[in-house]
């Protein structure tokens, strides 16, 4: 496939010429809008399930949500690793190498999708047992999870194709794909759940079908002969490793979130009962949606940082760090205040049961105050991934949940019961943030990686 080099250069040069603040906003809004719409259909999923099927069904979906997050983690690993490497290659005008990276990523996606297909086909019940899904939830959990695993190749491939546009500095096209998937999913949710009454299986089928539609649009856009970057296919297993290594921090972050959900479900079921598990599921859907602007800011920062770092424009790298940190901190603080003030009304979106509303309100008022501090770990991981230091990026991705939160969650409830769970969440936020700031400061003093002023 041929490439118009003049058009390519024109398509990416703005990443090093426009003011960083304006560029941050220009890339942030399309990504954020697209992600919010996608997050909206996850929220709508929960609303349809709770209102048309029942709160118990929502609890069943929550029990298998870690597997869905695991699939999303694999997709994010490939797409993020690919996008970071492609952006770096574009930063040094290596178009052919960028195209080869995309081709290698699609090869890995095919292999991972095949493995997940076999796993979901042969061992669905074993997966439920591994997640400690109680008999009360098993039927609905199986009905929802089975289609998601069998058609995981759709989600993985869509993620990879969508991030090609992000890597090229075309967030508007990525937003278009997200809007397409989200719009179809909301419509199909109503048809399959409310009209056809297919239960939680209808929610899963709606998700898969909408992703298929978006995938077809992505494939169509990538066939445009005037595209900025080619896609080349060559068999070279050695070229797979850099993609996997670069995307590893995102994989770790996503898997950690899945792990957090799993152990929270187990602890809540053991200590407080199914009502708290269901309330946690409702709150989790709200938080997943409400924190998407933070992820959009992080994605925008990584695009600017990776391109300018590759181009050795370290002054712009420093500016992007400052803008991203301030923006993420302000948004997270505002989010916590809004959730705390409107907690009862937010829970009432999902249910009219007083106990569930009360449980969700208690969680919001007890466990979310450390959320602004999480931005330090997100930004540290994102920065090191963008600059190629995957070892540090992976460490900061795992720091909070694996090294701090998990031990606290296992220990504190022994002394403080349910309050111990809330203490573990806030304590992990504070301890991990302090550790991140301390370690990053020492590394900053030891190296000149971002200290150059000209």
Radius of gyration: 22 Å
Mean pLDDT: 84
Low-confidence stretches: 1-10
- What is the succession of H and E elements? HHHHHHHHHHHHHHHHHH
Domain count: 1
Span between termini? 39 Å
What is the strand tally?
A: 0
Overall shape: globular
Care to describe what's here?
This protein is an all-alpha fold and 454 residues long. It has one domain (5-446). The chain contains 18 helices and no strands. The protein has helices at residues 5-12, 14-17, 20-53, 55-91, 95-122, 124-130, 135-150, 152-167, 171-195, 200-222, 240-271, 274-290, 292-310, 314-341, 343-347, 354-367, 371-386, 390-446. Helix 11 packs across helix 18 (390-446). The longest helix has 57 residues, at 390-446. Residues 1-10 have low confidence and may be disordered.
Write the topology of this structure.
Blueprint: H1 5-12, H2 14-17, H3 20-53, H4 55-91, H5 95-122, H6 124-130, H7 135-150, H8 152-167, H9 171-195, H10 200-222, H11 240-271, H12 274-290, H13 292-310, H14 314-341, H15 343-347, H16 354-367, H17 371-386, H18 390-446
Helix pairs in contact: 3-4, 3-9, 3-12, 3-13, 4-5, 4-7, 4-8, 4-11, 4-12, 4-13, 5-8, 7-10, 8-9, 8-10, 9-10, 11-12, 11-17, 11-18, 12-16, 13-14, 13-17, 14-17, 17-18
